[in-house]
Amino acid sequence: MKNLLLTAFTLLLSFNLFAQEEVKIGELKEGKNVITANISDIKTEWGKLIATQGNANTLDSWTIVTDKDKGNGETYHMLLAIAADKAVKVASILSFKDNAFFIKKVAHGRLTYATTTCAGCNEACSPLQENGAFICSDCPPGNSECTKNSSVTNVK
Description:
The chain is an alpha+beta fold.
């Protein structure tokens, strides 16, 4: 009986340590995707992220984008930040339910999510999904190359 209780307690503890919940980022209002949460912590962390990737740009345009997967045609949603010169774009996938957009949160209080940064030209080089994975669209011929960086970000 003692071993059974110890096993049950250990399982309960492990579920709590690794349980994830979702944090609401925005809503679908009158047919438009709207950021409704205070995302200042995400803005700070993404700014640090692009700096570590060698980008001196500032991300100043923040939107929730709904699009179709280029490979399988499924609808997906992402939080997208774009620099003023449009040469750097950062995205993270969002889930959508009950007319709201969510990002994953680790139970111990830190947001943890994957980001994809696309950098290069300002006419394209945008994050999009193909067969469930982020890719970066190509730059037009004659422009600089588009580079992709994927990372996992933790926010306070």
